[in-house]
Amino acid sequence: HPAKSPLFLSEKKGTTKLRTGRILTAATVTRVADANVVHLEQEIPMNGSFRIYIFGGKPDITKRAIADFASNLNKKDSFYSAFARPDASEVSYHESHNPHSRFFTLATVFNAKRPDIEIRDLLPEVLARYNDHVYADDVWDKRVPNARAAAHAKMGLSEEKGGMVVVRPDAYVGCV
């Protein structure tokens, strides 16, 4: 694509292991809400939404960046607000995949143990609303035996600073 940004990571540049146009790498994480170990790539149904995975790295390092991201999501002219549901204030609390927009689902993965993640303390309201999609990257994986955060490592993202992965509605990676 002709639009280029130094913020985009690329397998060709060696800044991520993910490839645009390929399926998201399988990763096992712990869902914070109920402590269930789950497959991250299977947590959000294929319902026509873009999936935005926020790999939050170490919460004490990235808390400010995540707050800034959420603040920009809430701006009137953001991509997220442009596709906001007109009935968002009436959406059931049990709608875990698309409470704000039918076009986007947000998921946050922290490099922390599940008991150390307090959703309401770490995440701004727009991200905390997706509480069923907040995960702890605390499951060991034999494919990256020395990693402290296996899902971050398998994606080729910094275990400290994290990164973001946008997955298209067809389940292929759109950008990192």
From TrEMBL:
The UniProt record lists the Phenol hydroxylase-like C-terminal dimerisation domain at 11-176
Key words, A-Z: Oxidoreductase
Judging by the UniProt lineage, the source's domain of life is Eukaryota
InterPro entries recorded? Phe_hydrox_C_dim_dom (IPR012941), PHOX_C_sf (IPR038220), Thioredoxin-like_sf (IPR036249)
User: In its keyword annotation, does this UniProt entry include Oxidoreductase?
Assistant: yes
Q: Does the keyword Metal-binding apply?
A: no
What name does UniProt use for this protein?
Answer: Phenol hydroxylase-like C-terminal dimerisation domain-containing protein
